[in-house]
């Protein structure tokens, strides 16, 4: 969410009515999340000026660990230098820390492609935004899910119930520090996740949703303490419930 919101912001800056705008003091502390969107808190160090040049050798974009040769345009300006400066800063301050983590396994190669392409400045901001929107579409639609055996048949579902909230086993990346709370596309995906975790005996699909509209599911190591909840459905492994009366 943070990276996509940042890319949308940089897309606007690259195509603003004032021309391409560079953020000269590009640091994480200069941004804040407002209603799920990343905002710049200080525009004092923004600039629409692009470096003047006479030849390509005048257009080297330097960073502490990397340099990029750019082209000198007919107008005597280093082509796209503001856009590329913003994009590489997004890569080194945000993408490298956020993109490799917490995505479903099937989407990680696509995020690695974005990471590598922006790190080498092979992508401009237009290509980067398209790549992010493709990943978002796959994530929201569930198209990233690989064909696998149907596992939900191995669970008993009880509508209108949930287990008592409390500290349980933890997983990564959980939305709760007390247990294993993950976003899912469907109960079928939740069943696959539960099967992959040794401690998991049941999971609850709630009405709570993430910013992408995906429901949250709580994965738990037991199922015995059930209480009524009209907005929840609890799924219990048949193997865990064998010998017990539900």
TrEMBL record:
One of its GO terms (biological process) is skeletal system development. It comes from the Eukaryota. The lineage of its organism: Eukaryota, Metazoa, Chordata, Craniata, Vertebrata. GO terms for molecular function: non-membrane spanning protein tyrosine kinase activity. Residues 2-116 form the FAM69 protein-kinase domain. Keywords: Kinase, Signal, Transferase. This is PKDCC kinase. It holds the Pfam family PIP49_C. Residues 1-22 form the signal peptide. GO terms for cellular component: extracellular region.
